[in-house]
Amino acid sequence: MSDVTLARRPQSPEADRIFRRDLVAIIPALRAFARGLCGNRDLADDLAQEALTKAWAARQSYTPGTNFRAWMFRILRNHFYTTAVVAKRFVAYDPELAERVLTTPATQGGERTLYDLQRGLATLSAEQREALILLESGLQWDEIATVTGVPLGTVKSRITRGRVALKRFMEGPPDADATAAPPAPPRLARGADGVPVG
Amino acid sequence: MAKRLDRTGTTGGTGGAVRTRRSIGADYISAGLRELWAAVEQEPVPEEFLSILDMADARRAAPGGGERDGEQA
Fold first, then answer.
1. Which of A35, A146, A161 to mutate to test the interface with B (most CBs of B within 10 A)?
2. How far is residue B59's CA from residue B62's CA, in Å, rounded to a whole number?
3. How far apart are CA A90 and CA A38, in angstroms?
4. Mutual angle of helices A114-123 and A126-136, in 10-degree steps
5. Looking at beta carbons, which residues of chain B come within 8 Å of A52?
6. What is the pLDDT of residues A95-142, one digit of tens each?
7. Largest CA distance in chain A
């Protein structure tokens, strides 16, 4: 990834300094990913901070030259899905937001808002949501597979299905005129022998 | 060059607008998701984020500390 530079294994003080610099540089992206996972600012920041602490403690296990961004996202995601969710410290998505989604239709007629998009995200499965978020964060599909620990085909499926579901939420049901059968062609008058006339 | 308006004062009427919006549906969703991501990235980083690594090191340096918090990625 271009936004982080790691060239040395973090064993020396200098390597630690470089690792730490890159860790600090990735904090904004970590916060964004955490926010996407649990949809709540405070909980997301707790999640990101714990992921940072874990990564710093595990810096010896990072292999320099590999994808640091994917490594960090994987730590955060694993922490979210294992320790955090099991312990019910974090929820899969903001419950208040989810409740509003269930009781309020999407914005009709006017501009689709980012708020609508957030509400749409809350309707997706956690796997679809994280795949879409990671894709738009700049990760490639194979990198998303690395972060989420699933085959590439599964990533593609989650993204495709997630986009369809999100699009359906944003746009509402198809127009009646778009789904109606096309009009039948005009019937031609036929002569006694069955040949069209006129 | 000004766009040609129809009798309703729009460039294509309601049906055209809907078709256009739907034909670029994936684009506005992608753009919106990127905007949501960027909005968080552009927020000022809370101070505690910057001191958390120092605190982690302090805990590990304390008696009984260690690599317990470590995680294989």
1. A35
2. 5
3. 7
4. 140
5. 49, 52-53
6. 455 445 444 455 544 345 788 888 899 899 989 999 999 999 999 999
7. 100
End-to-end, the C-alpha distance of chain A in Å comes to: 70
Tokens of B14: 């309601």
Q: What is the DSSP letter of A82?
A: I
pLDDT of residue A68: 95
Going A107 to A110 to A115 to A119, the CA torsion angle's sign is positive
Largest pairwise CA distance in chain B: 80
Residues of B in contact with A117 (CB under 8 A): 29, 32-33, 36
pLDDT (tens digit, 9 = 90+) per residue, A21-50? 999 999 999 999 999 988 888 889 999 999
Residue A63 makes CB contacts below 8 A (sequence gap 6+) with: A9
Enter the pTM of the model: 0.69
Distance from CA of A29 to the nearest CA of B (A): 6
Beta partners for residue A190, in sequence order: A196
